[in-house]
Amino acid sequence: MSTHGRRAIYTYAVARPLDPAQLSGLRGVDGTSVHLIRHDDLVAVVSTLRFTEAELAALRARLENPAELEAIARAHHDVVGAVFEHSVTLPFRLATIHQSEQRLLEVLRAGQQRFNGALDQLAGRVEIGVKLYVEAPPTSFAAADAQDTGEPAGRGRDYLRRRRDLLLRRQQAGRRSADAAARIGDTLARIAADHRFHRLQDPRLSGVPGDNVLNAAYLVDAASTESFVALARSLDGDLASARVEITGPWPPYSFAEPLPSPGASDAADR
Amino acid sequence: MSQPSTWSAVRSADDIAVRNGSTAAPNLADVLERVLDKGMVIAGDIKINLLDIELLTIKLRLLVASLDKAKEIGIDWWEHDPALSSGRSRALEAENDRLRQRVGELERTTSEEGEGVRR
């Protein structure tokens, strides 16, 4: 069986040309070195992977394994983050792979207008993540009872009363936190260049306790990051148990795909 | 019912990374939702089906559950091992490379053996 196999090009991001020395020593997916492929005013930031059929199968399997996926995702992000320190960066989704540099160059050529447009939009801007958490309301009668009286759930009418109270309390808490999330989300959206509301995070995935009631990404001018963050921090929606968490600045992952605007079309559709 | 110790252990908003998300290793959930669900989509030559974040959440629940289990019985060395936590040191890179190579070899072997069940 042949061991040299095919080679494939893994792309992390497209950026404006930068000095390759700025990325020296940087390691990408599976410890591969990172290099640049240039076309006009664009560079693709890539690694070369060995790609036999078996390796391809292994990669597919690894992307389905959470622990392996984490390593690959972090390696991808480390490269994108390093590029972002030196250049406006258009992050690619994980595992974008082409058969050769030639093929990738074709993609750069065909998508040139789209890439340039996106990079122009993102220049001088960063992504800031803003999440709002509220302490989860009691989910069981036992918990609610312990909070109320420290006594176990009663019988009959007592039980029904508690059950109704608990449901009511949960509903009210849910409404209050949804209102707060919407208020905070919109306030920040008004001063950001762009925004996206992401799926709320599952505490079992994030490891963060409490109910995530807002998970937003904002595209912010790098120069006004500080004031944006200060404002975000000050907004806790008047909820006693609310907590704002800010992450970033991130490379603009959430804004890499512009929302479709009417009449927009170019070679990317091919 | 509140968990004050857990709440205070959570990264505070003041911990915002100085340079970018890669400086202080960001929350895995934050990284995954970006690299799996966001980022520019370019049709590659090689088709890779990514888990979406929803399916991944389910898988990770299982993983987290088993990690918690491991911690419960005192197996938590990876939390203190710099090679496995995010603060990688240069000295460990070489070793990591050797390990990656070895893992790659083993994976190739297993995936060849498992050819029959491959999608």
In brief, what are we looking at here?
By secondary structure, chain A is α+β, with helices and mostly antiparallel strands. Chain A has helices at residues 53-63, 66-84, 101-110, 112-122, 141-148, 156-191, 203-206, 225-234; strands at 7-15, 35-39, 42-50, 89-98, 125-134, 194-197, 211-221, 243-250.
Walk me through the structure.
The complex is a heterodimer of chains A (270) and B (119). Chain A is an alpha+beta fold. Chain A has helices spanning 53-63, 66-84, 101-110, 112-122, 141-148, 156-191, 203-206, 225-234; strands spanning 7-15, 35-39, 42-50, 89-98, 125-134, 194-197, 211-221, 243-250. In chain A, the strands form two sheets. A four-stranded antiparallel sheet of chain A has the order 2-3-1-4, sandwiched between helices. In chain A, strands 6-7-5-8 form a four-stranded antiparallel sheet, with helices on one face. In chain A, strand 2 and strand 3 form a beta hairpin. The two termini of chain A are 37 Å apart. Chain B is mainly alpha-helical and 119 residues long. Helix content of chain B is 50%, strand content 0%. Chain B has helices at 4-9, 28-37, 53-72, 90-113. Mean pLDDT of chain B is 61; it is low at 1-23, 81-91 and 115-119. At the A-B interface, strand 1, helix 1, helix 2, strand 4 and helix 5 of A face helix 2, helix 3 and helix 4 of B.
